[in-house]
């Protein structure tokens, strides 16, 4: 039995390696076990720490008499791996994973009645941290109150995560995203902007201003400004600029920390789109009456890896957004917010010489391409999100138009997977079977559709090599879109 003792001038910052660590004054002689410590009443023997170990200069390793030398060496290694902060040394906080559950925990603390908070507390804090930093959004929601300090109820790690997620930087939008329980990646900026617009539209908080031309505040602060700006930039450039997307992948879906985009960056990457659509839907809901945000988001996204009983409402965002906004309304709002941007002083250089007809053309193209990509076709779950093995060999690209499309059921799983985690596990099992048992290069299907919820608005799971998974569109006589 042994005890590690780390001592320094700031005992509260000592981080022990073992469960039982005694932070004591610098040792000058043999120390008996302190009162109350669960240590046998033996005399502890001081062993000086080597100067080369970068720890507190007064730290020491104490072992019971009679401990074998080999065990002492092991304890020396443990101590060398421990961290004990000296004067003026900052200790990195434990930052929660970038998962929606982490955000729910933060919101639950921020809007707790015990803290005297209200449903607008989190959105106000979000504004101070960087949400709604674009000119159009600020014209609608106003300027933030100022730079905030960490609320005492939040841990340093939670505060660090929140500030990183809500700090607006157009060059790195992936830093503001979290993984949701349905497997989608959501940017928090447009989500919280839509929530604030919904609350204030419903009479909770300061009234929203009347702009000229008139705009829908909910669409303006979530998607319309970003969409109009993106397509306007493309028109002013070589017209081949990326206007929408891309999507991306997480380093670890169980403990997400880093999100990497899978293509050229546009002003409207997929996480921003998803956050914007969710902000519109939840903002419209809140306009009817305020709710605690943690409760609202938990009901919308589910928790953990989703609900075993039913698909969470977030899985239907494309259908519901299309029903609420639609191409015509979206086109109108994109044109309106571009008109607002022209009236701002100083006006945006990008809009200075753009006429009404050009604005209308940009809005029409933006709304059409957005609806085609994010409403009419289902989401695609890339291979990296279900942790696929590499493809064996070289995949063959489809050559449209296709003569035939076969629909085939899988043998396993016999029961539908009802959560993101369960579906990802089923995909890995299927890949192992097709590669290891059948000897195939990969799963023998082009796309898979889990029997989970509404059959017309599913998330397709691609088994083929990620770079060759671009959705192929074929228009039927009824005008419906099939993503293969």
UniProtKB/TrEMBL annotation:
Gene Ontology molecular function: N-acetylmuramoyl-L-alanine amidase activity; zinc ion binding
Signal peptide: 1-16
Signal keyword on record: yes
SMART domains reported for this sequence: PGRP
Coiled coil regions, renumbered to chain: none
Keyword set, alphabetical order: Signal
Domain Peptidoglycan recognition protein family stretches: 378-482
Domain of life: Eukaryota
Keyword Signal among UniProt keywords: yes
GO terms under biological process: peptidoglycan catabolic process
InterPro entries the UniProt entry points to: Amidase/PGRP_sf, PGRP, PGRP_domain_met/bac
Record-given protein name: N-acetylmuramoyl-L-alanine amidase-like
Source organism: Cyanistes caeruleus
